[in-house]
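The data are quoted verbatim here:
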Amino acid sequence: MSDNSESDFLLIERIRAGDADAWGDLIGRYEGRLLAFAESRLRRRAPSEDVVQETFIGFLNSLPNYDGKRALESYLFAICAYKLTDHLRREGRRPTLPIHSGGDGSSDNWELPGPHRAASSIARSGERRNLEEAALIEAIQGQLDHWRSRGDWAKIKSLELIMVRGVGNKEIEEMLELGRNSVASYKNDFLAKLRAAVRKQGLNEEVFPELYESS
C-alpha cells in the first residue's frame, strides 16, 4: 500500500469511528483540488463551491458502501463529476464545448473543431467529458500503481516520454537502451489495460462509445 493510500485508509477509518477532526482533515486534503476541478468547468466560484459541498455530502452518504478498492481521490473526483452533471442539468444548460485546446495546455485557449475532427468527439457533451476524465484518472492511476508494484520502471518511463513529452518510439528505445519495438509493445499493452480498466467501471456505453465500436 502506498503512503497516500495508507493515509487515506486511516483517514476513512477515523471518519467511520466518529473522530470529530477527521472530517475537517478530509476537507482540508481534497477541497482545493475539487474546487479547482469544478471551477475550471463552471467558471464561477459560488456554484463551484456548491458542487464541492454536494460532493462531500455525496461521499458521506455513500461511505457505508465504500470498500477502499477505488482510490479515495479518484472516488471523490468521480462523485464531483456526477454532481457537476446534476448542476448543469438543473440549470437547464450544457457548457460550451471546449473540444480542443492549444498546445500550451491553457484551458482558455480553445479552438473550434476542424473539418476533419471525428463526429463522436464533436458531439460529446461537457458533462460526458467530466465522467470520462474521472474514469481515466482512476484507470491510469491503477495501471501505474500496478507497474510500480512490479518495478516496471522502463514501461513507466516510456509512457511518460510518449504522452507527456511527445518523444518518438525509436528515440525512447535509444535513450533507455531498450530492444526494438519495445516501446510500441509497452504502449499497446498500456492502451489495452486502460480500455479494460475503464470497461470494468461499468459506465454507460454512451460515455465511452469508442470502447464498444470494435466489440
Observations:
- The CA atoms of residues 82 and 131 lie 7 Å apart.
- The two ends are 35 Å apart (CA to CA).
- Confidence is low (pLDDT under 50) at residues 94-124.
- The beta strands are 100-101, 110-111.
